[in-house]
TrEMBL record:
NADP recorded as keyword: no
Alphabetized InterPro entries for the sequence: Methylamine_util_MauE
Annotated protein name in UniProt: Methylamine utilisation protein MauE domain-containing protein
Top-level taxon: Bacteria
Record flagged with keyword Membrane: yes
Organism encoding this protein: Virgisporangium ochraceum
Domain Methylamine utilisation protein MauE stretches: 4-136
Length: 201
């Protein structure tokens, strides 16, 4: 997978977290209600998790957009997705009739509405695969990480945000008096040898 494709994967994951966190941050009570609806945590702990979750999602999304600490952000993404998959699976197994609350809302569904557990799990599994790949190969294009050289890129492609590592020195071939060709570097080497190797007077 090239660095450009990993950039797309990084931005996809970032967009999911920014939308998910952004829709919850304006309704923290709704986020708390969504967490508590899974009936896995005491209400007091659900309040803490529900209030903190939107800010965690936004923070992870911002890191991924910037491409800063990409492996850390991807690891956090994978951990969150594993928790979400486990929570939705537990709700499905226990026959709960709730909205996952992944993008706001959450809580008990209205009468006559059916949960979409299968598709929600399938979506999160696909996103988990993206996150795991970024944990394994975090280097992507247009990432702040590249400016600091925190990850080594092995794609052999030039990154527009990566400094040129060449020293700018090139050897230039020129004709020599003996009919052959010599490089400037070789000529400079012989000149230095001639200056330092003559007999002293």
């Amino acid at each position: 997978m090239s660095g450009w494709v990993r950039l797309a994967a990084r931005l996809l994951l970032a967009g999911v977290w920014l939308v998910a966190g952004g829709t919850k941050v304006g309704d923290l009570q709704g986020s708390v209600r969504a967490v508590h609806a899974y009936d896995l945590l005491p209400y007091e702990l659900s309040k803490v998790v529900g209030a903190a979750l939107p800010f965690v999602e936004i923070a992870v999304g911002v890191l991924l957009v910037a491409g800063f600490a990409t492996r850390v952000a991807a690891t956090a993404s994978a951990a969150l997705l594993v928790v979400f998959i486990g929570g939705i699976s537990a709700a499905w197994a226990r026959g709960l009739n709730i909205d996952c609350g992944c993008f706001g809302g959450g809580g008990q569904l209205a009468a006559g509405e059916s949960p979409s557990y299968f598709w929600e799990i399938a979506r999160d599994v696909a996103l988990l695969a993206v996150a795991v790949h970024l944990v394994w190969r975090p280097v992507s294009r247009l990432a702040v990480d590249n400016l600091f050289g925190t990850e080594e890129d092995d794609d052999g492609e030039d990154d527009p945000w990566e400094e040129d590592s060449s020293d700018g020195e090139h050897e230039e071939a020129r004709p020599a008096g003996d009919g052959g060709w010599h490089s400037d570097a070789a000529g400079q080497g012989r000149g230095a040898a001639g200056q330092g190797g003559g007999p002293g007077r």
